[in-house]
Design a protein that fits this description.
About 15% of the residues lie in helices and about 50% in strands. By secondary structure, the protein is α+β, with helices and mostly antiparallel strands.
């Protein structure tokens, strides 16, 4: 926890479609960048600091849906899965899944049963994707299509150039 946050600044760059927040705390300059890529169905969050080892956070997911659960895959991926609730006596059949893949640079990453903690990292990138599908589609596909979306996004978006695909798609 940092005291005395200063130089807080929010920005939306319409040319790159990146929303960012900059601030200083305890002599460290922090930056948060967010990009939503419609073609890839991924939201990307990039966290950086101008001094090594100052990125620390715990990520988790929650939903008001009763038929849901959060799990961890491969230490760095949060998975929220479930089925929509009953409505007016009709059983819910629409399945949903959201994933947050966390890729730290340096530091440590520790997973518990339903949270991922990053400590002492130099930077971190979070790839967020979600989808809905009916039980019928889920049985045919076997595995969630969202997993391939996240793998593709991680390969596609190098942290230094992650806005470039969105810029090309909007030209």
């Amino acid at each position: 926890t940092y005291a005395n946050v200063e130089n807080y600044r929010r920005e939306l760059d319409l040319d790159t479609a990146v929303a960012s927040v900059d601030f200083s705390a305890s002599g460290v300059n922090f930056r948060r960048e967010v990009l939503a890529s419609a073609p890839d169905q991924v939201i990307i969050v990039r966290l950086t600091a101008d001094k090594p080892g100052h990125i620390h956070f715990t990520a988790g997911m929650d939903t008001p849906q009763k038929n849901s659960a959060v799990s961890i895959e491969r230490t760095n991926t949060l998975v929220l899965s479930g089925v929509g609730g009953e409505m007016r006596g009709i059983k819910g059949v629409v399945k949903f899944q959201a994933r947050v893949q966390i890729v730290p640079e340096g530091g440590t990453i520790i997973a518990t049963s339903n949270k991922v903690t990053v400590a002492n990292a130099n930077a971190a990138t979070l790839y967020i994707a979600a989808c809905l599908f009916t039980a019928h589609i889920f049985r045919i596909a076997g595995a969630s299509p969202i997993l391939s979306i996240l793998i593709f996004a991680a390969l596609l978006f190098h942290p230094a150039q992650f806005p470039m695909r969105v810029i090309r798609d909007n030209i």
